[in-house]
Design goal:
heterodimer; A: PH-domain like; 5 helices; 57% helix; 26% strand; B: alpha+beta; PH-domain like; 3 domains; 7-stranded antiparallel β-sheet
Chain lengths: 167, 507
């Protein structure tokens, strides 16, 4: 089986939600520009440089990072395990055995709803793992499939244990 | 049997005293500051008012705690332990005996005087985003407390469940178990000696100083006045001696300070871990210790998911280690560690595990990061630190106009950090077999965590672009543990191990 990509609208969703933050960061940056033009003080200049740096980082976050994330983020679900690949510069590869899944949940936030995307939350006894920005329908299908896989795996393990006990 | 019953009424006084002490303390500080400001002209009237207020508050606290006590019950119904509490909002918690985790028994000084003991019962449940604790604190007379403890342990035991299912009545054994190992004074001495922290001692001094400052500005002013000539003469002393002499003097002073803090630490370890003993009793591990405050906890073996050995630098040199376990329901609070033994030689630690936790015995062969990882574990961080310290040295030399002084501190710190990274690289290892995964990490504080395979929940790798080019990654093994210790990390290992580990977990 091959790794699957996140939803096609994920890039648009990331750009939209991060643009909101960009607008919020632009406010102090614009104020600092006017402030520096008005008083020409070193404090205003430092404020302008710092807020400008935040704006540049957020611009990268809006324009460049979604492309990299879309290429690098991936997931794989088999009968035995869930694999999730994430990250931009530092890439994380997580493997969760199906038998360790406690419960699965498909979620959709307001912005995700606009783009018909969703997140699958996979809870284990050691914490939460997320497969984000999937097409919502796919997320629901995967969530149902995972539930079945978990139940099947647990039944398989229980029967193995029973056989071992009987022996 | 556990019919519906209340805790010992001494809980009212005990809880009231705790609140009362804090209250008296704040009133005392407030009065001291008012007195200093000279607002209280008629001292007699002021004292009368204070005594009246204190008496009123004391009665109110006693009444609140009495209300709480009279509405709190514990009972056993079918297969559940029932805990009822709440004055206005009634709360009834029902915990299946099979879900009960460690039973922690403690006796502080007050409880020893009045002949009671505190039972802390934990389910290990973690309620997300709430302050609710999974624990319930009960106080009973020692005799009744022991009976209840034995009853709960026997009800939560798997053996007992089998007997019950088979229609037979369970046998509850009382009395002391056969202790596998007891700590002696030599152990406390070594523990105190090797776990000493000069920084901790500095912290305590700072705490005392802050306390004095809070208590009275006048006292602080006097202290500062007294310190002024000392500071002046010290500065004069610094100016009249060479850098080398001052460095040697600082080393001697640190050594003296370390010796004093070690002595304090040995005394503290002796008081805290006095008569430390551990035993295996059926499905449980029993641990007891203490001189002034007595402590005893029972850890069901089925809830132990990992065994950890921790060694600081001194303990590494002496080949000693402290052994703790990760048990569900124990370790949710800060500074709460399920210690299996405070200090023991590495060889005896193995024998101890063999005897009381045979489920965890057996060596796991460790794979080390090796030469491939040294670039990322030592060289790269040291280049980064080198740049930082070089910049710091330049700034210091400009400020002090003294190159020797500006170089000394950064070089010493750089050497200490470098040694830490080298040690960490030397220790970092990962190992696995069909029963467990071992992760070893840390430099000055080396830890090895032996995780039961069925407790491992996921395994992750994280790598930047340079590590990926060499097929290396940092490994994180997440396992079922209390909230504060859910994952262990090993840096810069071959990514091929990920698939191998995933396969053995799945099996």
């Amino acid at each position: 089986m091959e790794f699957q990509k996140v939803g096609k609208k994920a890039k648009a969703k990331w750009r939209f939600s991060r643009s909101i933050m960009l607008i919020l960061l632009l406010i102090p940056f614009v104020i600092s520009i006017f402030s520096y033009i008005y008083d020409g003080e070193i404090g205003s200049l430092i404020f302008m440089i710092v807020s400008g740096a935040f704006v540049v980082f957020q611009l990268l976050n809006v324009i460049v990072y979604p492309i990299i994330e879309y290429i690098q983020w991936a997931y794989l679900i088999t009968d035995d395990r869930i694999e999730i690949k994430k990250g931009i510069f530092w890439r994380t590869h997580t493997i969760i055995p199906i038998s360790r899944v406690q419960h699965v949940c498909a979620k959709q936030g307001p912005v995700q709803r606009m783009f018909k995307l969703g997140t699958i939350e996979i809870m284990t006894a050691a914490g939460l793992h997320k497969v984000e920005e999937l097409d919502y329908e796919t997320a629901q299908q995967i969530s149902d499939m995972l539930r079945n896989n978990v139940n099947n795996k647990l039944a398989e393990l229980e029967s193995k244990e029973q056989v071992a006990q009987d022996a | 049997m556990l019919n519906r019953e209340r805790c010992s009424p001494t809980i009212i006084i005990e809880r009231s005293i705790k609140v009362f002490i804090i209250l008296i303390f704040s009133i005392f500080i407030e009065v001291a500051s008012v007195y200093e400001e000279g607002d209280m002209e008629d001292i007699g009237t002021g004292v009368g008012i204070i005594i009246g207020v204190i008496a009123g508050v004391a009665l109110l606290i006693l009444f609140i705690n009495w209300l709480s006590w009279i509405n709190t019950y514990v009972s056993a119904v079918d297969d559940n332990l029932i805990y009822e509490s709440g004055v206005f909002v009634k709360k009834k918690v029902s915990i299946p005996f099979s879900k009960i985790n460690p039973i922690d028994v403690g006796r502080n000084v007050f409880q020893r005087i009045v002949g009671t003991e505190a039972l802390k019962i934990d389910t290990g449940a973690i309620a997300e985003n709430t302050d609710e604790k999974s624990e319930m604190g009960l106080i009973f007379s020692v005799k009744r407390g022991e009976e209840i403890r034995d009853y709960i342990i026997s009800r939560s035991s798997q053996d007992e469940k089998i007997l019950r299912d088979a229609g037979q009545s369970p046998i509850i054994e009382h009395g002391e178990p056969k202790w596998a190992i007891k700590a002696g004074f030599g152990d406390f001495f070594l523990y105190g000696l090797t776990s000493s922290s000069v920084l901790k001692a500095f912290g305590y001094i700072l705490l005392v100083f802050t306390f004095v400052a809070q208590l009275s500005d006048a006292i602080l002013d006097k202290l500062m006045d007294a310190a002024d000539p000392i500071i002046d003469s010290t500065m004069g002393f610094f100016a009249s001696h060479s850098i080398l002499f001052l460095i040697l003097l600082a080393i001697v002073l640190i050594f003296i300070f370390a010796v004093i803090s070690n002595i304090i630490n040995i005394l503290w370890a002796t008081l805290r871990y006095f008569n430390f003993r551990v035993a295996r009793d059926g499905d449980n591990i029993i641990i007891k210790y203490g001189l002034i405050s007595l402590k005893s906890y029972t850890l069901p073996v089925r809830n132990i998911h990992a065994v950890t050995t921790t060694q600081n630098l001194f303990q590494q040199l002496l080949k000693k280690t402290s052994v703790s376990v990760t048990s569900i329901g124990y370790g949710n609070e800060q500074n709460e560690t399920a210690l299996l033994f405070p200090i023991i030689s590495l060889k005896n630690a193995g024998l101890l595990i063999d005897e009381i936790l045979p489920e965890y015995s057996g060596a796991v062969e460790l794979k080390y990061s090796g030469k491939k990882g040294i670039r990322f574990n030592v060289v790269v961080p040291m280049i980064v630190w080198g740049v930082i310290f070089a910049a710091a040295a330049v700034v210091l030399s400009v400020i002090f106009e003294n190159l020797a002084l500006a170089l000394t501190l950064p070089i010493i710190l750089y050497a200490l950090i470098a040694f830490g990274y080298i040690l960490e690289h030397k220790h970092t290892a990962i190992g696995y077999n069909d029963r467990a995964i071992d992760v070893q990490s840390g430099g000055y504080r080396k830890t090895r965590t032996h995780i039961r395979l069925d407790a491992v929940q996921s395994v992750s790798t994280t790598a930047g672009i340079f590590k990926r080019r060499r097929n290396l990654a940092n490994f994180v093994v997440a396992y079922h543990a209390p909230a504060m210790q859910q994952a262990v990390m090993a840096k810069s290992f071959d990514t091929a191990y990920l698939e191998e580990i995933a396969k053995i977990i799945e099996e």
